[in-house]
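The step that takes the researchers longest sounds almost clerical: writing a folded protein down as plain text. The outcome of that step, for a single protein, is printed below.
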Amino acid sequence: MNAKPKPVVVVTGASTGIGEACAAALIEVGFFVFGSLRNEADAARLGAHFAPDFEPLFFDVTAPEAIARAAEMVSARLAGRTLAGLVNNAGIALPGPLLHQPVEEFQRQFEVNLFGQLNVVQAFAPLLGAGEKRDGGAPGRIVNMSSVAGSLAMPYLGAYAASKHALEGFSDALRRELMVFGVDVIVIEPGVIKTPIWDKADRVDLSRYDATIFGPGARGLQKWAAERGQKGAPAEWVAKAVLRALTEKRPPVRIIVAPNYFFDWLLPRLMPARLLDWLVAKRLGLLPGKGEGAAP
């Protein structure tokens, strides 16, 4: 008697951090995971660790042709069944003051954090049951990885926050559009999580801003973010939220993963906006006449 095929989930940005943690959590409870990667070394490492329930997909979320080929591979494995889930986890954060940050760098964050998500959704939506009849399984779900920055923007992270604000609106519209197919869309909003993204941010060269009024403050925020990132919540917290989004009967449309919910999420949203502006500006040396920039 043949065993029932395992439900299949696609996770983008699966090489490290949250993506890898999501793959591990999903495999542990019985899913087969396709993870998008960009190099053979990561594929070999994850394949050895997660075999036989993991298969790599090689694509960048900004490359529609590569994504289409990956979708064909997933479709072949599904053999007419429905894709259980699509986890849009890939993303980047490039800090810089908005008055001086190169427009190309701003655009790059939108290319990855927003347009890339649309590329992936359009390629895999039919496999989830959006517009294409599938033989087996209920309609799948889409999980979009946003951030607390999706509703709270901080200085020097304006481009990243803008891309995540846009992803929030994109997700709401997509969720309402896909109701006609029964495909749900859930947003995960992590706070500070201990992942390699903080190490990458710490390596960004901000010396080009040293001659501006924002230089010292940007450097201070970068150092603070790297230190705080090392003390962040484990990526497994986010993986549990993703698992909830994919398996709970009626998950909330947004799931917040904040190490300190009151201070990291609730309090900033309860404060009057002008008061929060003042507190942030004071800490970063951005009050009028204080532009030399104090470290956080």
Residues 84 and 200 are 32 Å apart (CA to CA). The radius of gyration is 20 Å. Confidence is low (pLDDT under 50) at residues 291-296. The chain has ten helices and nine strands.
